[in-house]
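Just curious. Invent one:
>
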Amino acid sequence: MTALPNPPIAPDEKTANLPFYRSLVRSWRQQVVAFCRALEGRVETNETDIATNAADIATLETDVTELERTRNIWVQAYKISDQAISSGVATKVTFGAEVWDDGGDYTSSTFTAPRAGRYHIFANLSFLVGADGDVLRARIYKNGGGVATNYHSSSGSNNHTLIIQKTWELADTDTIEIYAQNNSNNDTIQGGEANTWLEIQYKGE
């Protein structure tokens, strides 16, 4: 950028005349105006660059936050204590202890999808069966309705484990819950981390 010009110096008195002096003043004014306009243009350019950089930084921060959020959609929880279920009644299984819930998406034994995409859901349920031939069911509920079921007829009165899993396309805010049912008798879902547990993990869009 051109430096601010020096003000005009009056010519020697022997050659001084008013038109010449006015010409110098006009020339100096023109240089000052040009300098100020150039300076103003530089300021505007810098302000534009700053705004552009700020927008780029904001976009990058959003991308990083979204990437971190996506990476951390992972829930694992298990039952703390035994839970009684009534004969023939599909009962929501409560998983009171959380092992992982990085995104805070699991509350009151309900998972809420924080974003649309594919999710893998896996549940391991331990039934304390009281009679031979009981029909046991494990269910995944999406948005309050059963959409995936696994069932088993018990052999003897020993403990029986049902596993149910599914990879699902969920929309943002869809909910997932696990239900258990014994069609034949009252039953108990056994508590303990090794007996009854749930895992949900985001797999991508």
Q: What stands out?
A: The chain has a mean pLDDT of 84. The chain has one helix and 13 strands.
